[in-house]
Amino acid sequence: MHEDEMATPQPDKETVQKQIDDNLRKIFDETANQPIPDQLSQLLQQLREQETRK
Predict the structure, then answer these.
(1) Cβ neighbours for 19, distance < 8 A, ≥ 6 positions apart
(2) pTM for this entry
(3) Half-sphere exposure of 6 toward its Cβ, with a 13 Å CA cutoff?
(4) Cβ within 8 Å of residue 11, ≥6 positions away
(5) H/E run at residue 54
(6) pLDDT class for 15, splitting at 50, 70, 90?
(7) Cα distance between residue 23 and residue 42, in whole Å
(8) What CA–CA distance (Å, rounded) separates 46 from 40?
(9) Mean pLDDT taken over the chain
């Protein structure tokens, strides 16, 4: 047996897919929990004010 044949076995497809799903979920959760930028918040406030004036 060659040294490269004794390498750590590759994880199965299901394990890899679960790791990808977990990492994507973590990134999405971190992004979703970021505060709304001030400029966007101000724009939303201006739009609300315009709607109440009608």
Answers:
(1) 11
(2) 0.48
(3) 3
(4) 19
(5) none
(6) very high
(7) 32
(8) 10
(9) 86
